[in-house]
Design brief:
The complex is a heterodimer of chains A (77) and B (352). Chain A is mainly alpha-helical and 77 residues long. Chain A has one domain: Non-ribosomal Peptide Synthetase Peptidyl Carrier Protein, Chain A (Orthogonal Bundle). The longest helix of chain A is centred in the N-terminal third of the chain and has 13 residues. The radius of gyration of chain A is 11 Å and the shape is globular. The termini of chain A are close together. Chain B is α/β, with parallel strands linked by helices and 352 residues long. Chain B has a single domain, classed as 3-Layer(aba) Sandwich (Peroxisomal Thiolase, Chain A, domain 1). Chain B is 30% helix and 26% strand. In chain B, the strands form 5 sheets. Chain B has a 6-stranded mixed beta sheet, sandwiched between helices. Chain B has a 5-stranded mixed beta sheet with strand order 1-9-16-15-14, with helices on both faces. In chain B, strands 3-4 form a two-stranded antiparallel ribbon. In chain B, strand 15 and strand 16 form a beta hairpin. In chain B, helix 2 packs across helix 3. The longest helix of chain B is centred in the C-terminal third of the chain and has 23 residues. The chains are: A mainly alpha (77), B alpha/beta (352).
Chain lengths: 77, 352
């Protein structure tokens, strides 16, 4: 999975929004669909990349890129 | 993890009792929009559940189930040696609800009776304790009564719990019998999870103050009081991923089974998202993993007997042996799994 594919998965399985609506700079708090269920789905998404973080770590993420930085090592170039 | 192998136990019957009121989650209240409720439902998988009225308790449901079970089995009430009540929604802080049940059922004064305070892991725990008492032959017949009425401790304005939990009670009859296949149990605990699934102000740690029952907006945006159930769904999800696949592997190894030997994996019905995710992580055929959360919600300690009585009735009544792996996990954190072969139960019913 590369960064773009991660964002696509994030759109489809976490936020359930149309493809292409999300970019890395977006502020999570300003995304209407980002809620507690989104956090659980994100934990599942990044667990799929063999990364486990506490919910607190996710809660501290400000932007979409902050989430991506948690799994950067696992993403392909 | 603790590993036990228990001999000389037969399960004779299981009855579950549901409250009369079946509620569609869309009809629950108007604090949330249909759109929001549908989104929650997609995640939890819950579309309806049964909930008690104010005057009905967990023990009332369990007594209904027990009466039906005793009648069907034609068990004489004077011959019941023990009654174990497993619940986190007892009638009182004291006395033990099991004592109240002994009297209401009209069981003998020779009968031992005590409560076990566990939730999602409670059914397997209760079976483990009952089996320990029976396997030597010192006790011959034990009633295991397990259930919860979590609806009594949730805030209707807390979206994380309000649309998830249903109520149910169960009664299971266990009896001493030589030369039947053994039951294995694996269980463990991680109490650092206490804060993630808790009612903070219903015990003696946080002594009740004047405003303990006043509902206020919490940091997660939900409105609840210190006496209401709090659930940190994300941490519970992480806990589940950490523990459950390993727990299933351990119980199979302890019992000497391969995954192919399991006919049904009876997982506590936490929520659909967790169940689907676990199903994908574990190397077991999807059709062997049971689910009824859509109709009943998460019924806490009653979820495992409710799955057996609703989905496996004909299978466990038949004389053909069926290999079950029962897996409870959650509040505590506490977890317990058992592997057992059952056949020819005399009574398997759901009443309401």
């Amino acid at each position: 999975m590369n960064k773009q594919q991660f964002i696509s998965e994030f759109e489809e399985n976490v936020l359930m929004v149309e493809p292409g609506t999300i970019n890395g700079e977006m502020i999570l708090e300003e995304i209407e669909e980002w809620d507690s269920m989104g956090i659980v789905s994100t934990l599942a998404l990044i667990d799929g990349l063999n990364v486990r973080v506490s919910a607190d770590v996710l809660n501290k993420c400000i932007t979409v890129n902050d989430i991506i930085s948690l799994v950067t090592d696992k993403l392909e170039e | 993890m603790a590993r036990l192998v228990l001999e000389n136990i037969s399960i004779r019957g299981i009855v579950c009792a549901l409250p009369k009121n079946k509620i569609n989650i869309n009809d629950l209240n108007d604090s949330f929009s249909t759109k929001e409720i549908n989104k929650i439902s997609r995640m939890t998988g819950v579309k309806s559940f049964y909930r008690v009225s104010e005057d009905q308790t967990t023990s009332d449901l369990c007594i209904l189930a027990a009466e039906r079970l005793l009648t069907s089995l034609e068990w004489d009430k004077s011959n019941i040696d023990g009654v174990i009540f497993v619940s986190q929604t007892p009638d009182y802080v004291l006395p033990a609800t099991a004592c109240v049940i002994q009297a209401k059922l009209g069981l003998s004064e020779e009968c031992i009776a005590f409560d076990i305070n566990l939730g999602c892991s409670g059914y397997v725990y209760g079976m483990m304790v009952a089996a320990q008492l029976i396997q030597t032959g010192n006790l011959k017949r034990v009633l295991l009564l397990v259930g919860d009425t979590i609806s009594k401790i949730i805030s209707p304005e807390d979206r994380s719990v309000n649309f998830l939990f249903g109520d149910a009670g169960s009664a299971t009859a266990l009896e001493f019998e030589r030369n039947v296949s053994g039951i294995s149990v694996v269980a463990g605990t991680d109490g650092t999870g206490e804060k993630n699934l808790i009612t903070p102000a219903r015990g003696f740690r946080n002594i009740r103050t004047g405003d303990a029952n006043i509902r206020k907006q919490a940091t997660d945006g939900n409105i609840r009081s210190e006496e209401d159930l709090y659930m940190n769904g994300s941490e519970i999800f992480n806990f589940t991923l950490d523990r459950v696949p390993q727990l299933v592997a351990n119980i199979l190894e302890t019992h000497g089974w391969e995954t192919d030997d399991v006919d049904y994996l009876v997982l506590h019905q936490a929520n659909k998202f967790i169940l689907d995710y676990l199903a994908n992580k574990m190397d077991i055929e999807k059709k062997k993993i049971l689910s009824n959360i859509e109709e009943y919600g998460n019924t806490s300690s009653a979820s495992i007997p409710l799955l057996i009585t609703t989905l496996l009735r004909d299978r466990v009544l038949s004389n053909k042996p069926v290999n079950l792996c029962l897996v409870g996990f959650g509040v505590g954190y506490s977890w317990a799994a058992s592997a057992l072969t059952v056949q020819g139960l005399k009574c398997v019913e759901v009443i309401n």
